[in-house]
Amino acid sequence: MDLLAQEIYPSILASMKSRLPGILTTTVTLVVLFFLRSLILRFIYRRVPNQALRLTWKRNTMYATMITAAMLILPAWLTSLKELAAFLALFGAGILIVMKEVILNISGWFYIIFRKPFEIGNRISVKGVTGDVLDIRLASFSILEINGNVRGGQSTGRIVSVPNSLLFVEPVANASKEFLFSWDELTLTLARFADLEKAEAILSNISASFIESITEQDSRIRQAQDEYAIRFRSLTPGVFVEVIQGQVQLTLRYLAEPRQIRQNRHLLWKHIIMEFNREGIRFGRHA
Prior knowledge:
This protein is of the alpha+beta class.
């Protein structure tokens, strides 16, 4: 017992004394930085009412705090980090294999931050999941899932967490970044001997009355043209006729913002049904 007290306790005390400056530096640095971060966020929250911008500030100030803390704290621990560097040199390959997913997720975060394939609030599709981006974190990003165009893009209420590494192996479709519109189509089948010209005129008139008029002079269209040279022959709604399995089908194709598609479909179908009933035009059995 005396030998234990004479040899081990002094070494423990000496080790604690050598690490005391690092511990104090770490504690003081973290307290000061997080206090400053709280002051900054309080100032921002008072002047920024937008919740998405608040989340962006909250996330970015956290990253800035951690990076600044690492730059200030590491010098105090450099002598202790020499052993860690030697360990990493010996077992670095094994660590890379074990931590591959973590490293890829962090790399994906850098890709999102600097390349900006999407931002908070954008409507995206990745690996069969469609929804609005709620948050972007170091390892993953969160999406508020929607039903796609099956039910006009209505939210399911489910939040899906997607690892950042997925961006390197899966394509990402963004419906609300450079090009803010999506083409939507309504297809209906006419009964046999229905008045085709009258039905086509009804669809054209209703779309002109209830669909937003979008031209090439629209600032949203010009932005997409300048960024990606996107060109369309026509931006106005169009009605197309085709015969499928012996029945006449009409397709109304129009341009709209993704979040307006559900409301647009409601208005279009409501007035199409009312006008068809008024004119005596019947739908086919596949409508």
